[in-house]
Design the sequence.
């Protein structure tokens, strides 16, 4: 299946899926988009992972088929809502993946899931963001529309056609500003840790992620933390989907072994394939 569908059968407006799940006991990866992003940002990655895992994607309010809804400006509220929406899948083998703002959100969802009775998470994969303990307020949510547009250009992750379409851009900026407010006012609890392993990814030329803050992800798990760098900037994912999918697949295999107690994860930093 290659068209986006909602999971209305379980009463969730938050969950999307592009490709039909196999339901054969393999892992499910839940993807959390970046600030201003939507479920469609993960279409290509979902396709690339189809042979390895089922993929669910979180759709935030205020964009695409949720455009009529007001975007949320509190990351902790977003985490509460997403956790509730994912409750029907907690009986399976779940791993969470987030990029940029999605990393902080995936981390908070992981904390909430692990507080509830039931099976533990396989693992958490974070990308393009420093650790929750590092406050990251660059004042982006206080910029005017022109300033936000300039920032979008700098990160080189927005299609030029969108930037040139003033009417379409007007629908993109409000949820993006709300996401900036959510993530820039977010501060992870000091000492908070997940019990599952973490794999952290980053573009080697990403100007928005200080290296020291990125490496602090290892302080937010009681399990192992691996670090991988990919060639590219903040949106390295867009140009390296096959490589990222292969790396995620290897991480899922390692998570599964560690989950069954068969083999410890290596904590050594690596460069992405």
Sequence:
């Amino acid at each position: 299946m290659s068209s986006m569908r909602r999971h209305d059968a379980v009463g969730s407006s938050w969950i999307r899926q592009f490709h039909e799940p196999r339901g054969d006991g393999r892992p499910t990866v839940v993807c959390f988009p970046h600030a201003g992003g939507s479920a469609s940002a993960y279409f290509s990655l979902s396709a690339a992972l189809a042979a390895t895992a089922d993929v669910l994607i979180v759709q935030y309010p205020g964009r695409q088929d949720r455009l009529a809804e007001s975007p949320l400006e509190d990351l902790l509220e977003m985490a509460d809502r997403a956790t509730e929406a994912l409750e029907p899948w907690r009986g399976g083998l779940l791993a969470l993946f987030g990029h940029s703002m999605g990393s902080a959100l995936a981390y908070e969802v992981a904390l909430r899931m692990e507080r509830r009775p039931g099976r533990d998470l396989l693992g958490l994969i974070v990308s393009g963001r420093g650790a929750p303990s590092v406050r990251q307020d660059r004042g982006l949510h206080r910029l005017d529309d022109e300033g936000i547009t300039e920032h979008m250009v700098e990160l080189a992750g927005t299609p030029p056609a969108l930037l040139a379409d003033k009417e379409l851009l007007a629908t993109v900026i409000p949820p993006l500003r709300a996401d900036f407010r959510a993530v820039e006012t977010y501060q992870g609890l000091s000492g908070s840790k997940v019990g599952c392993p973490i794999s952290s990814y980053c573009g080697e030329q990403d100007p928005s992620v200080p290296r020291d803050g990125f490496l602090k992800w290892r302080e937010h798990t009681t399990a192992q933390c691996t670090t991988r760098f990919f060639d590219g900037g903040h949106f390295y994912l867009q140009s390296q989907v096959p490589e990222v999918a292969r790396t995620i697949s290897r991480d899922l295999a390692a998570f599964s072994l560690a989950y069954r107690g068969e083999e410890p994860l290596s904590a050594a930093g690596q460069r992405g394939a």
Remarks:
- The domain at 5-271 is CATH 3.40.50.1820 (Rossmann fold).
- Residues 166-184 form the longest helix (19 residues).
- The chain has one domain: 5-271.
- Strands lie at 5-7, 12-17, 28-32, 54-58, 94-99, 123-127, 198-203, 225-230, 269-271.
